[in-house]
Amino acid sequence: MNTRANTPAIVLLSGGLDSATVCAMALEKGHRVYALSFNYGQRHGIELIAAAKLAHVMGVEDHMIADLDLAKVTRSALTGQLEVPKHDSIEDMSGDIGDKIPDTYVPARNILFITIAAARAEAVGASDIYLGINALDYSGYPDCRPEFIEAMQHTLNVGTKQGVEGNPFTLHAPLIHMTKAEIIREGTRLGVDYSLTRSCYDPDENGLACGHCDSCLLRKRGFTRAGIPDPTQYA
Amino acid sequence: MNTRANTPAIVLLSGGLDSATVCAMALEKGHRVYALSFNYGQRHGIELIAAAKLAHVMGVEDHMIADLDLAKVTRSALTGQLEVPKHDSIEDMSGDIGDKIPDTYVPARNILFITIAAARAEAVGASDIYLGINALDYSGYPDCRPEFIEAMQHTLNVGTKQGVEGNPFTLHAPLIHMTKAEIIREGTRLGVDYSLTRSCYDPDENGLACGHCDSCLLRKRGFTRAGIPDPTQYA
Known about the structure:
- Two copies of one chain form a homodimer.
- The longest helix of chain A has 16 residues, at about 110-125.
- In chain A, helix 9 (about 180-190) crosses helix 10.
- Chain A has helices at about 15-30, 45-60, 70-75, 90-95, 110-125, 135-140, 145-160, 160-165, 180-190, 215-225; strands spanning about 10, 30-40, 60-65, 130, 170.
- With about 240 residues, chain A is an alpha/beta fold.
- Chain A has one domain (about 10-85, about 105-200): HUPs (Rossmann fold), CATH 3.40.50.620.
- The interface of A and B includes residues 109 and 122 of A.
């Protein structure tokens, strides 16, 4: 019997490939899933529609979209203040990964998202929070590294009522050491419909993926390496 | 010469007595102050008008009010889901302080506010963030304790670009070990006009302080003990 069965859990559901996979993993553990998405002024607002569809199709308990006015306080390619970098192929891009923090970095984004997830968790009585963070991200984004997850979990547990009153939060990042291909294989096994997910940082007006941003290139290669057909519609 | 002179700093300015005092302290150090307030669905929204007036009168570089939809994700007396506790006198209230976390606790509020302050700091090139947290608060709220401040600072410095690229954030909580009376004396020395500040958790429709919530009671006693006339208008 699964000890997690029927306990509530928060899943950060962006509408992308990784978070959809994590959502399927939390559901497989038997959690009642409270999915949480953020409208933070992202260019790729279409991912919120994807998140809503995924939440419905996957059968979560609840899906909430929280509004965050990040574009007002900060600057990033993802919120429209900088350009989204584009490349002809993943080889052109690979110099970027790990070398420096990309322009698509959104200051303090994951700290903010995880914190709101914890506030939501306190409200619904959940102590498990699932995150779609993975290794390909943490090479570039400081807030995707295991070291960060650990610091964040500690902060939640000293800085919230639930944490200090003996029902501490656990941050789960089950994809953290998986490659994109491994994630896609695992999600496929769990029945995730990847045609509903959106990864592109800069989709066109019809919502079609650009095929050339870092996120599209990593996604394409993931499907190729997993040996699974890519259901994504590219512009 | 002051080494902080002319460097930017973020000050979390709620419009209350404590944050106004901290703002004066940051200005005295010579910082260019970027004040930041939050519209998080608080009952006492009038504090935002107070914050705007204070920012103007005190001569800060910039004042931003960020919107946060906390009432949607969580529950607290301050966001209207629970009642604000009232007492006839501070003696009736003192049993509350330190014994348990009060209903006015807002889940993860300070983590969220400090995180957005860090995002704002990254945008304006600041590494100093000033907080009005003090001893009377940290007896009841987990996110007002020195242990929390330390954990939070570490999280920011492993989880943000600015932190990992060698320009780490410092969280300043200069009031943390001061009594309310000491804070009022220090602010008075620095010329803070406390008649512009608002502390009440549950003001009436004309914006007058209730005089009976924890915040009003602590404020009243602070002025009495400081031997300084209380300029607050009570209902």
